[in-house]
Amino acid sequence: MKYMWLSFSILLLFSCVTQEEQLKDIKPISEVYIADIEQLLSDGSYMKAIQDISYLERENRSIEPGTLKELETRLFLTLLEKFTEFIADSNFNDAYRLYMSLFNIGKARLLPEWSEKKLIFSLARMYSTGTNRSVAMYYYLKALENSDLTKEECTEMLDFASQLSSKPALRLIINYMDEKNYTVGDNYRDQAQQKSTKAAMMRGTAIIWIDKGIKIEKGYGIPDRVMGSGFFVDKSGYMLTNHHVIESEVDPKYEGFSRLYVRLSKNVDEKIPAKVIGYDRVFDIALLKLSITPDYVFYSGGNVAVEPGEKVVAIGAPLGLENTLTSGIVSNLSRRFIQIGDVMQIDAPVNPGNSGGPLLNENDDLLGVVFAGLATFEGLNFAIPYNWVNKIYPRLFEEGEITHSWLGLALDENESGLEVIYTIPGEPAWRAGIKPGDIIKELNGHTYTSIRDFQEALLNYQHDSLVKLSWSGGDKTKEGIICLTKRPSIPIELALKKDTRNNVIVPLFGMEIKAVKNFLWETEYIVTRVYQGSIADNSGISENDPLSIKKWFIDTENRVAVLQVFIKKKNAGFFESIVQLATYLETDNFI
Question: How far apart are CA 409 and CA 435, in angstroms?
Answer without folding.
Answer: 9
